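The pair is listed for reference:
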Amino acid sequence: MPNIYDNIQNQFAEGLINTLELSHRSDFCVGYFNLRGWKQVTDYIDRWAGGENNCCRLLIGMHIPPHEILYRYFSQLDEEIIDNKKANQLKKELAQHFREQLTRGIPTEADEIGLKKLSKQISEGKVIVKLFLKHPLHAKLYL
C-alpha cells in the first residue's frame, strides 16, 4: 500500500530519507525540481555505485505558468507536436529557470556543496536526468 505524505501527519522528507536508507536505486518523477533541495538526499544517493541498477533516475516535467496554460487552452496548442527545435527551446527555458533558482536568495555553503555533489553524481552515473517535454507532469514526487 502506498504511503501518502501530507506534511501534517506524515512528513515527506522523513519518509523519503527512510526509504532511501533502505534502497539501492530510485526513480523520481517530478513536475518541479528545486536544485537547492537536492542537498537533502545527496548523501543517500552518494552511497550507490551508479549504473543502471544502482542509481537515481530523475524525470523532470515542465512547470507551466498559469498564463501559459490559458494561452494554450484558447489557442489549442496542446495538440502541438514537439520537434527538435521546440525541444531545444524548452530545454533552454528550463536551464534559464534553473539559473533563476540559483540567483534568488543568498546561497548557503550547504546549497553549494549539494549542487557540486549533484554535478558529480550526474557525471558518475549515480543520477540520470531526463526531461519530459510532451506535457506538464503533476508537481509531486513519485517513488
